[in-house]
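Worked example 3 (structure in, sequence out).
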């Protein structure tokens, strides 16, 4: 069961926060915030330094720098998906929808190149087609397939493609899983 903090404990926490702010801001800025009783007064201060260890956002709450989140609880995710029609694509995001108009080449080197050592990502694509075509995947590294490489063929019913990409010991490995749609 959670224990409520008493007023002395709250005053102690307040003094710690006030001291931390004093180290990062000018004395007048801290005094202004302390007397106003609102942390929102800090948002309009142009001289606030960049603090390490917090999520940096723009005014639209869009992250402007890569964030390290150690434990995330997400109820719903959604991604912007590019849409390309043709015979090749070089994706730069996690998801895409393609309309193959012939044998299709997917170059994943841009995504793999954005990974640093010890990072992984998953790329997912839906590939639609009106006929059967081959799918070639280009990546500088080792490609393994769940099932057979021939399972990655694009059919007129379409294909759902998942590619796990891992960068470890400065080499890239990807595992391809494809599901033919019906």
């Amino acid at each position: 069961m959670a224990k409520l903090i008493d007023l002395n404990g709250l005053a102690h926490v307040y003094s710690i926060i006030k001291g931390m702010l004093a180290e990062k801001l000018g004395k007048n800025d801290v005094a202004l915030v302390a007397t106003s009783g609102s942390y929102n007064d800090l948002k309009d201060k142009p001289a606030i330094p960049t603090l390490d260890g917090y999520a940096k956002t723009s005014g639209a709450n869009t992250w402007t720098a890569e964030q390290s989140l150690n434990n995330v609880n997400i109820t719903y995710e959604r991604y912007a998906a590019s849409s390309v029609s043709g015979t090749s694509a070089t994706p730069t995001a996690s998801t895409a929808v393609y309309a193959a108009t012939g044998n299709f080449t997917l170059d994943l080197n841009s995504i793999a190149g954005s990974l640093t050592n010890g990072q992984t990502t998953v790329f997912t694509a839906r590939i639609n087609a009106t006929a059967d075509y081959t799918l070639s995947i280009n990546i500088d590294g080792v490609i393994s397939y769940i099932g057979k490489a021939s399972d990655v063929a694009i059919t007129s019913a379409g294909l759902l493609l998942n590619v796990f990409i891992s960068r470890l010991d400065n080499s890239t490995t990807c595992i391809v899983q494809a599901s033919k749609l019906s």
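Notes: Residues 7-24 form the longest helix (18 residues). Residues 82-180 form one domain.
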